[in-house]
Design goal:
It comes from Rhizobium lentis. InterPro entries: ICL/PEPM, Pyrv/PenolPyrv_kinase-like_dom, Pyrv_kinase-like_dom_sf. This protein is of the alpha/beta class. About 45% of the residues lie in helices and about 10% in strands. The chain has one domain: Phosphoenolpyruvate-binding domains (TIM Barrel), CATH 3.20.20.60.
Length: about 260
């Protein structure tokens, strides 16, 4: 498939009630392993890519390294690739669009794009984030690529008290609608694990909703019944592999 065909195929995999499952990767080697396991598409996780290069999350990884990592994946594995691009390394719409264009140029077909103010506090106002999404959409449309913008809200991830998540749902729905109108392709709600609240957002969203698996989250089949269109695993795969590596190394060194 060429890039346009991959982008169309990737978008088509997002179906409410029949979600695409993305087991997040961080380099070409993990991309190949997940592809061989049966994945239909690939997605990086920003935390994992940064950690694999010795950096903290939050756009501490140089963008040039991230772009080169994404290119190594698209060069090595012939599956649609979505890149977790955090805040697109720019607060301004024009800068965000120009940076995302670099990912389009190396063959990526989508991004995660968050409304958290990276290296700052809080979330962007709805109108500001919508303007950033709109700029990215206009850039991609200009290249005739049906680029998948997975518009992420950090409302729930930023609130550690799960009992307060119900009070954030209305704002999340408002943001989802604004992001859809601006050209978003999906709506990502990491941190939300309550089944009833997930179902409410799925019912209200015109976009396929992405839920991130974490402790306490419903299983894949339940999420599908709730209307979720995309399930991802974030930094979980990286942490799991690193823990196994530590255990195996410890077992070897304990014999010396």
């Amino acid at each position: 498939m060429n890039q346009t065909e991959k982008a169309r195929a990737f978008g088509a995999l997002h179906q409410k009630g029949n979600p695409i499952v993305l087991y997040n990767i961080w380099d070409a080697g993990t991309a190949k392993a997940v592809a061989e396991a049966g994945a239909k598409a690939l997605a990086t996780g920003s935390w994992s890519v940064a950690a694999a290069h010795g950096y903290a999350d939050g756009e501490k990884l140089p963008m040039s390294v991230l772009v080169e990592t994404a290119k190594s994946i698209t060069d090595f594995v012939d599956l649609p690739l979505s890149v977790d691009f955090e805040g697109a390394y720019s607060a301004e719409p024009e800068g965000a669009a120009a940076n995302v264009a670099r990912l389009v140029e190396i063959g990526a077909v989508g991004i995660n794009f968050e409304d958290r103010v990276v290296s700052g506090e809080g979330l962007y106002p709805v109108e500001s984030q919508a303007a950033r999404i709109r700029a990215i959409r206009d850039m991609a449309d200009g290249k005739d690529i049906p680029f998948f913008i997975n518009a992420r809200t950090d409302l729930f991830l930023a609130e550690s008290d799960l009992a307060k998540h119900a009070g954030l749902v209305d704002e999340a729905i408002e943001r989802g609608r604004a992001y859809a109108s601006a050209g978003g392709s999906g709506f990502f709600v990491p941190g939300l694990i309550d089944a009833g609240l997930i179902e409410k957002i799925c019912a209200a969203s015109a976009l396929p909703v992405n839920v991130m698996m974490r402790a306490g989250a419903p299983d894949v089949k339940t999420l599908a019944r709730l209307g979720v269109g995309r399930i991802s695993y974030g930094p979980g795969p990286y942490r799991s592999m690193m823990e196994r590596l530590r255990q195996e190394a410890a077992a070897i060194y304990s014999l010396l």
